[in-house]
Amino acid sequence: CDVSGRIIAANAAMADLAGESPAGRPLLDLFTGRAARQAAVELRRAMRGERRWRGLLAVNGEQVTVEVRSRPLPRDAGTLGASFVFTDVGAYERGQEALRTSLCEQKAILDHAPVGILFTKPGLLKECNPRLSEMVGFSAAELARRDPAEMFTSRAAFEAFRDEAFAALAEGAIFEKAEVQFRHRDGSLFWARVRASAVVPSRREDGTIWIVEDVSERRQARRELLALMNNSSLAIMFTREKRIRRCNAGFLAMFGYEPGECEDLPVQRLHPSQDDFDRIAGAAYPLFEQGRTYQAEAQLAKKDGTLIWGKMIGYPVNPDDPSHGYVWIAEDRTRQRRDEQSLRVALQENQAIFDTAVLGIAVVEHGHTLHGNRKMEELFGYAPGTMRGVPVRSLYPDAELWQAARLDTARDFAAGRVSVSERLLARRDGVTFWGRLSGRPFDLDHPGGRSLWLVDDVTAQHEASDAVRRARDELELRVDARTAELAGANALLQDEIVERRQAEARVHHMAYHDSLTGLPNRALLADRLEHAILAARRAGACLAVMFLDLDRFKTINDSLGHATGDFLLKEVASRLCRAVRASDTVARLGGDEFVVLVPGAGSRDECSQVGDKIIEALAAPVRFEGHSLHISPSIGICVFPDDGGDVDILMRHADAAMYQAKAAGRNNYQFFTERMNGAAARHFALESNLRQALAKGEFEPFYQPIMDMGTRRVHALEVLLRWRHPERGLVLPDDFIPMLEESGMIVPVGEWVIRRACEQSMAWQRAGVAPVPLAINLSARQFMHRTLVASIKRIVDETGIDPALVEFEITETALMQHGEQTLDILDQINRMGMRLSIDDFGTGYSSLAYLKRFPVRKIKIDRVFIRELEASSEDRAIVAAVMALANSLQLQVVAEGVETEEQLALLRDYGCQYVQGWLFARALDADAAQALLVR
Ligand SMILES: Nc1nc2c(ncn2[C@@H]2O[C@H](COP(=O)(O)O[C@H]3[C@@H](O)[C@H](n4cnc5c(=O)[nH]c(N)nc54)O[C@@H]3COP(=O)(O)O)[C@@H](O)[C@H]2O)c(=O)[nH]1
């Protein structure tokens, strides 16, 4: 300061002390109050000599105690004044105080520090805080005496640690190791972070301070976090500056990246588009700034571009410092989204069903409807949306019905079943209707909880079923009445069934049996023969088939009638059955044909025995209605296997043999030979040709004159049939008449002969030929045929012939066989004016009684008696006897077969009136006969 007290210059420290540089200001301004006055005194004194005093400076409103030392400026200073050295004595004191305070604080820090702190000097542990003692289990004093290696897991670990730390410290650097494993006194291990630095970096000998921080828990937490991340199915990533810094396996799996691919990947790549990313970032980061969590569900993009749905949670690692980045956790919810979508659709569908169902649907809880669909509202008469809270009780007409429904429902629900019923329900306006209810609890384990009900209006069905029930009741009444009626009818029906069964049995029997004789018929015979052949073939045995045809049966049948024929057939059947063994089969094929099947018979002797027995059985005459009928069989025999191997062949061969028996004179049996096949064939061919001959006009009547012995003129013409066969020429009657008779064709052919002869007679008469009687042959079968008389009458009427010109010749045998019936026919013919003669007289057995009664005019002595007349005295005696008989009965006699004059002479001697024979003429055709007549 100069002598005026103005500060000439001040150093920087002074400026610090004063708060600003005081240069140029009066020195006294630096002091306050009383101190300024003292300073003024000291300023003056300072000009004179050195001074030391204390004062108070005013600095920024505060007082600072200073010690001031002053001395006058040296003379060479160029100015008068004094220098002043200010020492801030308050600062020192405060420094001391601060030091003390600092030491206390440091002590407190050391004592309470959460980290272990250790001071060492080379080879010496100086001090440690309680936390370190706690960490290692040794007090500071104990530690000072211990080998530091004890605190490590091994000596090697200690030495490695020491070398590494000392190397760093030796370079004046700070040693830091994140995780070092230490051993506690009790042997347990812990992890610590160690930081060490020299107390004075340039002087290591001044010691080293070690900070030991127990990081076991943090390490464990970090490991757990790592495990959590690595094993979590959630995607976890850490982002910073909008790039992925770390992510877990779950993240890689969710987004399709390989390990290492995601580090530094822009987060934006996880989003479908920049817009998506911006939208999410725009929503998330403002929350992060507030330290809040962001949550959202959004579409995310996988590495390959596939979009997935992810639920994301993001939050800042350190809400106070965004630079630490963010944690993002994402969950793949694609499948859930899909399921939710499906569920949503299903719910929509359900809702649609609910809304449009034709059934009423309601949810009920605690006796009230929670809601009902439109149909339900309609059924019960509620406006749309007004069914919520409606008491179920109000849906029933009365409390009683409601209670009954409740009890039933509770019982069904408790039993775990759907409650289905039909009940009378009430609309809001009181109108009742029948509803079919179906209810079930939402949760079967809580039957008293919420339940779902379906209601259908079944009033119409109910009424219909009521109607049906009424109708059914009515019907049942009627059915009862009808049942009673039917019971009676049923009894009748049962009787009918029995009858029908019997009829069926009869039909079945008839199908296989001959209705007349009861014998097996052709079908059953074929079946038995078939079986017998099989059995014989298996046993290597034989069997015989015997074909029987009754001789002259047809004649008897035709002449004596069917009743006689039937009786005869039954008798034959009976005799045949008795003649053979029970094991043999007697069958009737039809007509007069029988077959006897004899299993086991193979030799000629065996067959002959059976054949003889049959002939013998039929030999005795059959007596019927006064007739004594003689019947005989023609039997054809063939043997299996020699003569045939099947039914058809055996039957055919037996039949052929039978024809042979017939040809051999009847009443005999013949064994089949191959030769017979030809004969049978011829026989069948003849029959076939004969059937066509009439139609083809192959028949032709010939005429043989019967001469009057006295006049030697033609007395009559015998009509003799010829068959003008296209190949065989003129066939004589003996070759085809038997076949015509046998087949019954004799009836139409015989009628044709009568008609043709009458027509011829009329033709001759018209030609001027004098009328000559015609002698027409009637076979026995033709004679007995019931149509004979009528047909003769018709022919006479139609041709106009004089009946007196017609004479019928009937064989003696035919006449005698049929007794009274014959008489009747003869009478009818006779009454028509026609004459009758007995042909072949002498060959049969005439009953004189009948002979006497028959209206016959003539008898013809058979030519067998004429043939040997000259030589045979017996024939002559017969002729004489016949002549005597005829005379006594007043019958005319014709001798036929007269071939010689001698025969003629003898006959004349016997008084025979008429003769016929080749001596006069053979049978002539019509022209020749006419010529003979007009001669
Ligand atoms: N029911 C019918 N029977 C008829 C018919 N036409 C003929 N016949 C019968 O056929 C048998 C054979 O007749 P046929 O071969 O014509 O023989 C007759 C004469 O030709 C034969 N005859 C006459 N004279 C002689 C003779 O001197 N010697 C001789 N060896 N034969 C002679 O006799 C037959 C006439 O016999 P009959 O009738 O007994 O007078 C025969 O039995 C005919 O009856 C017909 O249309 N219907």
Automatic annotation (TrEMBL):
Where is the EAL domain positioned along the sequence? 683-935
This protein's record includes keyword Iron-sulfur: no
Positions of the PAC domain: 176-227, 294-345
Tell me which residues make up the GGDEF domain. 541-674
Q: Which InterPro entries match?
A: Biofilm_reg_signaling, Diguanyl_cyclase/Pdiesterase, EAL_dom, EAL_sf, GGDEF_dom, Nucleotide_cyclase, PAC, PAS
Keyword list (alphabetical) reads:
Signal
Please name the Pfam families in this protein's record.
Answer: EAL, GGDEF, PAS_4, PAS_9
Q: Does this entry carry the keyword Signal?
A: yes
Protein name per the record: EAL domain-containing protein
Q: Which NCBIfam families match?
A: GGDEF (TIGR00254), sensory_box (TIGR00229)
Q: Which CDD domains match?
A: EAL, GGDEF, PAS
Q: Which SMART domains match?
A: EAL, GGDEF, PAC, PAS
